[in-house]
Write a structure and sequence with these properties.
By secondary structure, the chain is mainly β. The chain has two domains: about 160 residues, Immunoglobulin-like, CATH 2.60.40.710; about 260 residues, Jelly Rolls (Sandwich). The protein is about 10% helix and about 45% strand. It has a 17-stranded mixed beta sheet that branches. A six-stranded antiparallel beta sheet has the order 14-13-5-8-7-15, with no helix packed on it. The chain has a five-stranded antiparallel beta sheet with strand order 6-10-3-1-12, with no helix packed on it. InterPro entries: Beta-glucanase-like, CBM2/CBM3_carb-bd_dom_sf, CBM3, CBM3_sf, ConA-like_dom_sf. Keywords: Signal.
């Protein structure tokens, strides 16, 4: 009897092992792929996926993994994953990197899902998964030799991307070589002593050589935004002492037709982290008639490479003391951009607004982290944006004061508006509260530090 039971148990175990590989036999998921970065080299790979369930069973997406295979770039400084937009929600999409040896690829991106992504029902698809990854030093990525790369701008099935349910391969052909050996996570804990940029604007004038040495450009010449024919005048940016503290003053002038506008911007190297500035907005000109549609700003931006380019990014605080863009009076905008085109005008952005006066000094903070852009004014959260509007590339930090085209009131009398900036601060890869920002700035000032930049 004991021998019979043993034999029976052994037979059941063998049967279980035989059934396990076909446990998902009714599952059939196809991976469709496209990219929005089709060049042989790029600053970030933009691998977009859509999963299609052509089987007869409903599959929890939390059981599913997608793998995209590539060759590491030299030097191998590591990679970071980001979700730009997903129908199932970027908060329900995960990404990590693994290594391979001996084949045509030595790295792979593994995309997974949380339970919040739901299930993939028979005949349904996952919707867009607009994903990207980049080197931690933002160095170039060579895509032309990557196993899974295909310069295709529309979705179609692609068998060089694999789909697994558990350890069972449902779709695609992996590259040759040994099985995956290690998996590395894409995130690291914030470093409280990590890179920072702080500038107290302790300069003599707009020609001070330290401005350029520290990465700033005082804009000159023509070009938008603004009224047609306006010029950007470096001489109208000054650095007076106000209440015992050096500030940057933007002073923009017009006479109803000609205009001189002002802008200062930093080099393009800022991405995720906390941005902050203390800004004095003004509701009225310092002289001359009031009523012009003027824009006073603190923002970050990535240049637009082409109309509707997906790598464009912009994060704005814009104050319009006299209204404009269809608004009759004071309004503050917080706007996060996906992209745009000029002709014909198409804007793909999301914004919040406060219809109130912001005359005077205000603490402005925005946090860029974990797929969200959060805006604060004087310590109060006023906007929270994300999904496809989350930035994708490094940006410059900018301040400008300009007049809206068609928004000058009829008088030919001269007038000028001013905006002042007490400081600007950036903490890379850290999410700091407005109170923490104030403490950090005060620590610099207590130590007599007027400028830091190790970003």
């Amino acid at each position: 009897m004991r021998a019979l039971l043993a034999a029976s148990c052994a037979a059941m175990a063998v049967a279980a092992l035989a059934v396990a590989p076909s446990a998902f036999a009714a599952d059939a998921i196809t991976a469709q792929y496209r990219t929005s970065a089709s060049g042989a080299t790029t600053d970030q790979a933009e691998s977009w996926f859509k999963l299609v369930n052509s089987g007869t069973t409903s599959v929890p997406l939390s059981d599913v993994k997608i793998r995209y295979y590539f060759k590491s770039d030299t030097p191998d400084v590591g990679y970071r994953f980001a979700c730009s937009w997903a129908v199932r929600g970027c908060g329900n999409v995960t990404g990590q990197f693994g290594t391979l040896t001996g084949g045509t690829a030595d790295r792979y991106l593994e995309v997974g899902f949380t339970s919040g992504a739901g299930a993939l029902n028979p005949g349904a698809d996952s919707g867009d998964l607009q994903l990207r990854f980049y080197r931690t030093n933002w160095g170039p990525i060579t895509q032309s030799d990557d196993y899974s790369f295909r310069a295709e701008s529309t979705y179609s099935a692609w068998n060089r991307v694999t789909v697994y349910r558990g350890s069972t391969l449902l779709w695609g052909t992996p590259p040759g070589g040994s099985p995956p050996t290690t998996t590395t996570t894409t995130t690291t804990p914030p470093n409280p002593n990590g890179p920072k940029m702080f500038d107290d604007f302790a300069y003599t004038n707009s020609s001070d050589s330290r401005i350029g040495q520290r990465g700033w450009t005082v804009r000159s010449g023509g070009g938008g935004p603004g009224v047609p024919g306006a010029t950007w005048d470096p001489s109208r940016i000054t650095f007076p002492t106000v209440d015992g503290q050096k500030v940057m003053r933007l002073d923009s002038w017009n006479n109803g037709s000609a205009a001189r506008q002002t802008e200062l911007y930093h080099q393009r190297k800022f991405f995720e982290g906390t941005y902050a500035s203390r800004v004095k907005f003004s509701d009225a000109p310092v002289f001359g008639p009031d009523g012009d549609h003027v824009v006073q700003t603190f923002f970050t931006i990535t240049p637009l490479d082409a109309p509707m380019a997906p790598n464009y990014g912009e994060i704005d605080f814009e104050y319009l003391p006299n209204g404009g863009w269809g608004e009759p009076a004071n309004i503050m905008y917080e706007t996060t951009w996906e992209t745009y085109q000029n002709e014909p005008w198409v804007a793909d952005n999301i914004h919040n607004e406060q219809r109130a006066s912001y005359n005077g000094w205000h603490d402005l903070v925005f946090q860029v982290a974990n797929g969200r852009v959060k805006y604060y004014i004087d310590g109060v959260l006023v906007a929270d944006h994300g999904d496809k509007y989350y930035p994708e590339t490094p940006m410059s930090i900018n301040f400008n004061l300009w007049f809206i085209s068609g928004g000058l009131q009829g008088s030919s009398a001269e007038r000028a508006y001013q905006q002042e900036v007490d400081y600007v601060y950036f903490a890379k890869d850290q999410v700091l509260s407005p109170a923490q920002v104030r403490t950090a700035v005060q620590d610099y000032r207590n130590a007599g530090v007027a400028h830091v930049d190790n970003v």
